[in-house]
Design brief:
GO terms for molecular function: ATPase activator activity; protein-folding chaperone binding. The protein is mainly alpha-helical and about 170 residues long. It is built from seven helices and no strands. The longest helix has 29 residues. The protein is globular, with a radius of gyration of 19 Å. It starts with 5 loop residues before the first helix and ends with a helix.
Length: about 170
């Protein structure tokens, strides 16, 4: 059995803008239906199918709930697979990345928790701006290159957000 489209699993249209509460609700309802425990008394084949359906559902949910992964997935549905770790041929953003990394390093060295909180807010704003821009252009074939560049930027900001959370935890200890 092939993987159905992630959107089809949730009975949603392939859109970038999603109501995440609605997505979570649909996920919980489906997860209850396909949970492997419900098939504990079933045959081995049915149990295996239940596990597979549950794994597919989890993968679909993780992909759709995260903007960068959702954006990548939408492009892949249109036949544009991006390499996971694409080099950023984007000198302006490369400079921005270096600046953010230096700033984060300084915040770490200064053990500046309020500074980290401010940095996090700026990062969230940058992510929101990328999300909004991607939502505007992802369907436009003429803007494909920009859409791919935005996805790469989104992926970088996701990674940077993880690093900020880890730094917060270290500084909190």
């Amino acid at each position: 059995m092939g993987n159905p489209c992630h959107y089809a699993l949730f009975d949603l249209q392939p859109e970038f803008d999603l109501d995440l509460n609605d997505l979570s609700e649909r996920y919980r309802n489906l997860a209850r239906q396909v949970h492997p425990d419900r098939f504990a008394d079933a045959g081995e084949s049915e149990q295996r199918q239940a596990l597979e359906r549950s794994a597919n559902l989890n993968e679909a949910y993780q992909t759709l709930k995260a903007p960068a992964r959702r954006a990548r997935y939408l492009l892949s549905l249109q036949g544009h697979d991006l390499p996971l770790e694409a080099t950023v041929q984007d000198p302006e953003f490369l400079m921005q990345q270096m600046h953010w990394r230096e700033e984060l390093e300084a915040l770490h060295e200064q053990v500046d928790l309020p500074g980290v909180a401010t940095f996090k807010v700026r990062l969230k704003d940058a992510q929101r701006a990328l999300d909004e821009r991607f939502a505007q252009i992802w369907r436009d074939a003429a803007a494909r290159e920009e859409a791919e560049r935005l996805v790469r930027r989104m992926q970088f900001l996701d990674k940077l957000s993880q690093e900020v959370r880890q730094l917060e935890e270290r500084l909190d200890d």
